[in-house]
Design brief:
single chain, mainly alpha
Length: about 500
């Protein structure tokens, strides 16, 4: 048997380029992690739910309108005092893996051109992809799961595809359309019935969630009604109808064109030239999933049943990166043919990629990073200062009464040490009992909500919006108070 010929080092360069772009993007995310806390308020809401899950896991309604998987992911971090850390690290890992999976997926159908590698580089350095990969939000993980589902489908692994779709269905509602997409693909491609049972997995995940909600709330699709109620309040508070921001003025093309243009600028025009490639040579599952998700997020925003958030585009970054890469490849081939030197097509495609990356990095990416760093330094400074005051006065057994949700995450206390009452309902007697049993109790809230607390309290911190109070155990403790069974 003739030994295999070693691959020339030159053939590894395309993969090295993708790996290098991924490494640069990962270093940028590490810089964002080092600057300061996550800036997205929803990340803290997810973290609080993860903390509540440790004590109230039977209560489905603690997940509010969200799906449960991201809260399950956050629960170990909450249990070990590393709130948001695990979620942010998972986002970093997922966003680093996505360009590599995208490249491998596209090479399943295209091993002749550099388009898969160009797509991997563009995906890695896409501004939204870089920034969202440093957050504690689930979008980067959802992006990776969607790509892996397409990859396993291309490899004819229906059970793995079904399992991935089951995970996705418990992570983002957009994923609920995907089992239908893959079922249609299965029918159109005439795949054997042997793997058809895999579609039971995402179906069971969705059905179980709906039925558990029905059993817990007594109402079908309670989360949809609650979401509509929240949106009505949010629209009024943000005055979206009056202000008419760009996301509302251009709602039909907000996800189709506006967000991609803000992220990529003029190089996005290559995506138009890449559309024929998508119809002829791209993996069917990849195109079908991307088209379905784009249609879903657009329809939901046009119907005004969400807030048109930019981060919802994250899962579509690989599709647009692939279209741009295919357009560059097509343009390079056309230019090389016009010059009478077809062998230069790859070199010209690489040149177009370098120009596009330079444009994206020097403008949209630099702007996004600057905004993210500014917000991370500026936001939650007050909560961090209050958390430092609370930790300095907490002791080993004291608990904290607070209705400031983000503070719980910054304190990173065991969940049982944080009492989520409305402080306006807390009385002096409540604090007396708690302090008598634990030696001390602290209160954090808005000053107006603590006006009724007077007996024996010490003000540790106060500004226009937050106050920290401490109530120590009295010198003489009534026996009947300490005999009361203390909370855990």
């Amino acid at each position: 048997m003739t030994p295999a010929t070693p691959r020339p080092p030159l053939r590894r360069l395309p993969w090295i380029a993708v790996l290098l772009a991924t490494a640069v993007a990962t270093l940028l995310r590490a810089r964002l992690l080092a600057v300061g806390p996550d800036v997205d308020s929803d990340a803290y809401a997810h973290a609080v739910i993860a903390r509540r899950l440790l004590l109230e896991w039977r209560d489905i309604t603690i997940h509010w309108v969200w799906l449960p998987l991201w809260h399950l992911v956050g629960a170990p971090g909450a249990a070990t005092g590393h709130d948001l850390t695990l979620q942010r690290l998972l986002s970093v890992a997922a966003s680093a893996a996505a360009p590599l999976v995208l490249t491998a997926l596209l090479r399943e159908r295209d091993r002749e051109t550099y388009a898969p590698f160009l797509a991997g580089v563009l995906c890695a350095l896409w501004p939204l992809h870089v920034v969202m990969g440093a957050t504690a939000q689930p979008e980067s993980t959802f992006e990776l799961i969607a790509l892996l589902a397409c990859f396993t489908w291309q490899r004819k692994q229906p059970v793995a595809t079904g399992a991935l779709l089951g995970l996705a269905a418990l992570l983002r509602y957009e994923a609920w359309v995907l089992p239908g997409v893959f079922f249609v693909l299965w029918c159109c491609e005439g795949r054997p019935r042997r793997g058809a049972w895999a579609w039971i997995i995402p179906g069971l995940a969705i059905s179980a969630w709906v039925l558990l909600h029905r059993a817990s709330t007594g109402e079908w699709f309670w989360f949809l009604r609650e979401n509509r109620r929240y949106l009505a309040r949010a629209w009024a508070e943000l005055r979206l109808a009056e202000r008419r921001p760009p996301s509302l003025r251009y709602a039909p093309v907000w996800y189709l064109a506006a967000i991609p243009w803000l992220s990529a600028g003029p190089p996005l025009l290559f995506a138009l030239a890449g559309l024929p490639w998508a119809l002829r040579r791209a993996p069917r599952a990849f195109v079908a999933v991307g088209a379905a998700l784009l249609a879903f997020v657009t329809a939901v925003w046009v119907a005004r049943t969400n807030l048109g958030l930019t981060r919802h585009f994250t899962v579509l970054v690989p599709l647009y990166a692939a279209l741009m890469a295919a357009g560059m490849t097509a343009a390079a081939r056309a230019l090389a043919a016009r010059l009478g030197r077809p062998h230069l097509a790859r070199a010209i495609a690489v040149g177009l990629l370098v120009a596009a990356v330079q444009s994206i990095v020097r403008k949209p990416l630099e702007r996004q990073l600057r905004w993210a760093e500014r917000d991370s330094r500026r936001l939650y400074g007050q909560e961090r200062a209050v958390a430092a005051v609370v930790r300095a006065n907490l002791g080993d057994r004291a608990r904290v009464f607070s209705d400031v949700k983000s503070l719980e995450v910054f304190l990173a206390l065991p969940p049982w040490r944080f009492v989520r009452w409305r402080v306006s309902d807390v009385s002096d007697f409540t604090l007396l009992v708690e302090a008598s049993q634990r030696g001390r109790v602290l209160v954090v809230t808005a000053p107006a909500r603590a006006a009724q607390l007077r007996d024996g309290v010490t003000v540790l911190y106060r500004d226009a919006t937050l106050v920290v109070l401490r109530r120590d155990a009295p010198a003489v403790v009534e026996p009947w108070i300490v005999r009361m069974p203390p909370a855990r």
